[in-house]
Amino acid sequence: MNPKLHSVLTINGERRDVLAPASATLLDALRSVLGLTGTKRGCNHGVCGACTVLLDGKLARACLTLAADVGERAVVTIEGIGGNGGLSPVQRALVEHGAIQCGFCTPGVVIALSELFARDPRPDRGAIRGALSGNLCRCSGYAKIVEAAERLAGEAR
Ligand code: FES
Ligand code: FES
Taking Cα atoms as reference points, which of 60, 63, 88 lies closest to residue 73? Predict the structure, then answer.
């Protein structure tokens, strides 16, 4: 028996009702209940970073966070990163620099870099690599991702 719980979550600025099993993770709620499938399920146990979201502006693994524990914290997913349907500066930099291959890691990478640029608009290479240390990319070898972030940092100088 896995009783369902009702939670009201703030997702990308909107209050959303979630009725899900008590054991549901935030990742389950986003993808299976709310249809927000931009947040990816990779390892489902906290290793790959594909499920990264922001909780009150801080990085969080949605696969390790119980939906019922989110409470009043504001959730930002990849769907909430661009403004007015457009690309955010981080997204634009990745696209323009050819830093996306299969794209599976990209939502988590965008969230991680967005968190970095929010607290440090001009990060150096070490800070960029550090910010990406929790996000596995099987395709790119990271070079293009790091270069895209460096270019964005350069635009702010
Ligand atoms: S799916 Fe959450 S860290 Fe891999
Ligand atoms: S672009 Fe394929 S996993 Fe990163």
Answer: 60
User: How far is residue 103's CA from residue 110's CA, in Å, rounded to a whole number?
Assistant: 11
Token pair 């801080």 is at which residue? 58
Cβ–Cβ < 8 Å for 62, 25:
yes
Pocket test for ligand 1, best of 63, 77, 105, 132 (most atoms within 8 A of CB): 63
Q: What is the pLDDT of residues 36-73, one digit of tens each?
A: 999 999 999 999 999 999 999 999 999 999 999 999 99
**Residue of the nearest CA to atom 3 in ligand 1?**
46
With 0.85 as the threshold, say if the pTM is over it: yes
Task: Please give the Cα distance from 47 to 124 (Å, whole number).
Answer: 25
Domains of the chain with CATH codes: 4-80 (3.10.20.30), 89-155 (1.10.150.120)
Burial degree of 157 (CB within 10 A; 0-12, 13-18, 19+) = exposed
Strands 58-61 and 52-55: antiparallel
